[in-house]
Every structure is written in structure tokens, then in C-alpha cells.
């Protein structure tokens, strides 16, 4: 049986914004294994008003 990932949310970000954090970055990386080859990394800091629409 294949596990289907749920749709993305800002649940964790909203928790941190509520606690007073102003800048919360979401990060991701793409590459081959544990840094076994070329790696690309990115970080995005969404605005507090961000919604899940269109992600």
C-alpha cells in the first residue's frame, strides 16, 4: 500500500508566529543521498498572512 502525503499546511509556522517568532524559514534540499553528490538547498520565509492555497 502506498502512503499518500497530506496536503502542505502552515501549522508549524503558525505555532511559531503565535509564540512571537517573526521569521520562520521552510527549507528543502535535493541531491543524491547524504551529500554524496551535487546538492541544491533552498529556504523560503513566508509572510505571516500566507495561506496554503496554491502550494
What does this structure look like?
This protein is of the alpha+beta class. Helix content is 15%, strand content 18%. The protein has one helix and two strands; from the N terminus they run αββ. It has one helix at residues 11-18, and strands at 26-30, 40-44. Strands 1-2 form a two-stranded antiparallel sheet. The chain is extended and about 40 Å long. The protein starts with 10 loop residues before the first helix and ends in an 11-residue tail after the last strand.
Structural class: alpha+beta
Helix-strand string: HEE
Shape: extended
Roughly how many Å is the radius of gyration?
15 Å
**Major sheet:** 2 strands, antiparallel
- The strands making up the biggest β-sheet line up spatially as 1-2
Q: Regarding quaternary structure, how should these chains be classified?
A: single chain
Give the number of helices: 1
Task: Provide the low-confidence segments as ranges.
Answer: none
**Mean pLDDT over all positions:** 80
What is the strand content? Answer: 15-25%
Helix content: 10-25%
Write a brief structural summary.
This protein is of the alpha+beta class and 55 residues long. It contains one helix and two strands, in the order H-E-E.
